[in-house]
Each structure stands twice: as C-alpha cells, then as structure tokens.
C-alpha cells in the first residue's frame, strides 16, 4: 500500500541522562518526543520502520549523531498514528556553534518517506548543565528540592540580583526578597516577569504551582499565595537553582 502523508508533526522535550562516574559528569542527553500524523501506514510490509535521527548539518553534508528505529509492521489500515521515541545521544558530539537537524522518516522496501525536519540550535548555556553539582542537577533538571535552611542565599541580605544557575537569566531581585521563615529563599515577585514561568504540579498527591526558568526550563521551586503585600505571592525558590550578583552587577 502506498503511504500517503496528510499531516505530521513532532513534539519534542529534553531531559538529561546522568552517568555516575568518578568525575560525576554528564555524558549523554536524551530527546523524548512523539511522531504523530494523519494518514495511512505501510500495510503488510514487515521491513517498514520509522527512523528518527539526530544529524549534524555542516556544508550541506549531514552526519548522523544518533538514530533509533521503530518497527511499523501492521496488518490493518489505520488513519492516524502516534509513536513515542527516546533518542539518546553523546554530549561529546554536541558543539553549541553547530546546527543540528532532527528528522523522522518512514522507510519501506520501496520508498523512504520524509515526515518532518526540525532544526535544533544548541543554546549557548547547554553545557552549563555539565558543570552543575549533583544537588543542582537534581533540583534544576529533575525537579528535586534542597533541604530547608541549607542554602547560604536563604539568609543573604546583600543588595543585588538572583539569576538562573543554568542559563544566567535574571529572575529575582533583593528588593523583593523577604524572610518567609520557610528555610528557602523567598520573593514576593520576580524581577523580570517573562523570565519566570509556571505550570501546575500534581506530584505527590498535591496540586501546586511549579516555577521554572522560561529560557532553559530549569526547575526553581514553587509559588504560593500566602506572601506579603503588595502581591501576596511567595516564590519559594531552591537556593542551589540561583546565582547571586551584588549591586555592582545589578544591570547585568
């Protein structure tokens, strides 16, 4: 049966694999996503498969960095499809100055059908993840929580700004910091609103509002509505997810 593509798109999210070694360095990253589409799949072709591939694009001569094959054999006609994938690739192969292409293709005995090509430009802050401490990695990349009253920033009373520990985006100001008594650095508002994003967190049987860096998606903490005036908000932030710059760097 001839494959006829009607509509195809890919959802991509990033997560990172931590290799426990003597150097405690990240060695691989993982792209998790889904290939979805409307249209028929090869019917009765036992060799048909979906190929998801991460390639380096240089001088119009792509080089494969990592690939994964998903078997597509089916003996029935379908009008739509949804295939999740997890593609693991070595960080040593990634250069922030290069451009990478994520492609998805359906391969059969008779043809190779391209589904989508999505260009991924590695951000400049990407390799900062490799430099994080184990605790900072657990908090920012795995949505962990540091122990209360353990961060030096909790009692910090200096004037300055607080930035993301991963990408250095400006997040909070000492002008909005206050002593919440919780054991974590707390702020009643962000310094630059668009740099701080939220979403609903339903883990552990609770419904909370999670806070993360809008640029690199690093987990920061949670926000509650029991703060002081004028916002009545309490941004409860893990100190290990922040970097502090004193007033001389306020305009950073």
TrEMBL record:
<dbReference type="GO" id="GO:0046872">
    <property type="term" value="F:metal ion binding"/>
</dbReference>
<keyword id="KW-0862">Zinc</keyword>
<dbReference type="GO" id="GO:0005737">
    <property type="term" value="C:cytoplasm"/>
</dbReference>
<dbReference type="InterPro" id="IPR002579">
    <property type="entry name" value="Met_Sox_Rdtase_MsrB_dom"/>
</dbReference>
<dbReference type="InterPro" id="IPR011057">
    <property type="entry name" value="Mss4-like_sf"/>
</dbReference>
<feature type="domain" description="MsrB">
    <location>
        <begin position="125"/>
        <end position="247"/>
    </location>
</feature>
<dbReference type="Pfam" id="PF01641">
    <property type="entry name" value="SelR"/>
</dbReference>
<dbReference type="GO" id="GO:0030091">
    <property type="term" value="P:protein repair"/>
</dbReference>
<dbReference type="InterPro" id="IPR039366">
    <property type="entry name" value="Pilotin"/>
</dbReference>
<protein>
    <recommendedName>
        <fullName>Peptide-methionine (R)-S-oxide reductase</fullName>
        <ecNumber>1.8.4.12</ecNumber>
    </recommendedName>
</protein>
<dbReference type="GO" id="GO:0006979">
    <property type="term" value="P:response to oxidative stress"/>
</dbReference>
<keyword id="KW-0560">Oxidoreductase</keyword>
<dbReference type="Pfam" id="PF09619">
    <property type="entry name" value="YscW"/>
</dbReference>
<comment type="function">
    <text>Methionine-sulfoxide reductase that specifically reduces methionine (R)-sulfoxide back to methionine. While in many cases methionine oxidation is the result of random oxidation following oxidative stress, methionine oxidation is also a post-translational modification that takes place on specific residues.</text>
</comment>
<dbReference type="InterPro" id="IPR028427">
    <property type="entry name" value="Met_Sox_Rdtase_MsrB"/>
</dbReference>
<comment type="similarity">
    <text>Belongs to the MsrB Met sulfoxide reductase family.</text>
</comment>
<keyword id="KW-0479">Metal-binding</keyword>
<dbReference type="GO" id="GO:0033743">
    <property type="term" value="F:peptide-methionine (R)-S-oxide reductase activity"/>
</dbReference>
């Amino acid at each position: 049966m001839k494959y006829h593509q009607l509509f195809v798109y890919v959802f991509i999210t990033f997560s990172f694999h931590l290799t426990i070694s003597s150097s405690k360095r990240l060695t691989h990253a993982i792209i998790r996503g889904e290939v979805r589409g409307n249209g028929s799949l090869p019917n009765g072709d036992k060799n048909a498969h979906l190929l998801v591939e991460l390639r380096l694009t240089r001088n119009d001569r792509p080089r494969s960095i990592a690939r994964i094959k998903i078997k597509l054999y089916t003996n029935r006609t379908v009008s739509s499809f949804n295939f999740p994938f997890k593609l693991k690739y070595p960080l040593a192969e990634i250069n922030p100055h290069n451009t990478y292409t994520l492609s998805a293709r359906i391969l059969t005995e008779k043809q190779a059908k391209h589904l989508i090509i999505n260009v991924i430009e590695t951000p400049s802050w990407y390799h900062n993840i490799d430099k994080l401490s184990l605790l900072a990695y657990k908090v920012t990349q795995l949505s962990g929580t540091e122990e209360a009253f353990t961060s030096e920033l909790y009692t910090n009373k200096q004037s300055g700004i607080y930035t993301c520990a991963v990408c250095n985006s400006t997040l909070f100001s000492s002008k909005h910091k206050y002593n919440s008594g919780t054991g974590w650095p707390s702020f009643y508002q962000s310094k630059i609103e668009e740099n701080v994003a939220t979403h609903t967190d339903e883990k552990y049987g609770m419904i909370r509002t999670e806070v993360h860096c809008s640029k690199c998606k690093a987990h920061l903490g949670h926000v509650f509505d029991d703060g002081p005036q004028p916002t009545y908000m309490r941004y409860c932030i893990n100190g290990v997810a922040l970097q502090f710059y004193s007033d001389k760097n306020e305009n950073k």
